[in-house]
């Protein structure tokens, strides 16, 4: 129980409090999580993320250097639609474990008890974290399909930084007002991975992707909601949320990506500029490289990548069909 009390009373993550000859940060783990995968210590999850970085930045591209891109259409469809189902389940569990069953949507402290509600929130917070490790497959698909242009700094930063920070978040505060952004992010992922699944299915489904441009708007709404929600904390006379540090981090995270995506929206839809021109390589489906048929359907990777808008070299490349050898071919 001393382990739990130490964790509960921490005002910041690395507050050093001696207990039985150990620093408090070595005893932080919520005991309710001790049997969950990857939660024994930060070593396992950090090793996975380091291996991910090594593969994405060095080993993967080197392995594919003299190989043709893999055709992973079926695998991508299954992967993306599976994440639609998982994300929808996570949203439901967040609602049922607090957000629709007692939370005020303002200052909601973390429930550290062993009550059914507290345990349910702990479980879905871990499940959200685990889904971030599953989503590392986004980058694996990019590498194996030789879409190296999609592996941007932003893509790598998001896929490595978010699981790492959320591991600490789940360990210290699995629930409460700090879990709002996870619930909203999962809502967005239901839409996003559904889009990816349709796009991965090929040109026949392009006519159903007319709403591609609105994916960026959905991202912007996400960041606005997240930032506004945590901003409340700064104007409250008192709030007993146990780890205020997470409020500051979430606010910075939401604001940073709102600015980033706002700039993209302005450049893409107001000024009419697109991403840098790519050489006109033709893929097996007859679409230009850099089109909407990229890994996971677009380069909005987990909501924080750079969203290509189905335009290659600044021009639309298919309209219920696909561009092939400069001519319009009906599907």
- Strand portion: under 5%
Shape descriptor = globular
Please state the structural category: mainly alpha
In order across it, which strands form the biggest sheet? 1-2
Overall average residue pLDDT: 78
- Total strand count, please? 4
In whole angstroms, how far apart are the ends?
64 Å
The total number of structural domains is 2
Question: Main β-sheet: number of strands, strand sense, barrel status?
Answer: 2 strands, antiparallel
Number of helices: 9
Reading the helices and strands in chain order gives HHHHHHHHHEEEE
**Helicity, as a percent range:** 40-55%
List the uncertain runs: 1-27, 275-331
What's the gyration radius in Å? 21 Å
Structure description:
The longest helix is centred in the N-terminal third of the chain and has 27 residues, at 73-99. The strands form 2 sheets. Strands 1-2 form a two-stranded antiparallel sheet. The chain is mainly alpha-helical and 331 residues long. The protein has helices spanning 2-8, 42-64, 73-99, 116-134, 137-144, 153-172, 180-200, 214-231, 244-270, and strands at 311-312, 315-316, 321-324, 327-330. Strand 3 (321-324) and strand 4 form a beta hairpin. The protein folds into 2 domains: 1-35, no CATH class; 40-330, no CATH class. The protein is globular. The chain contains 9 helices and 4 strands.
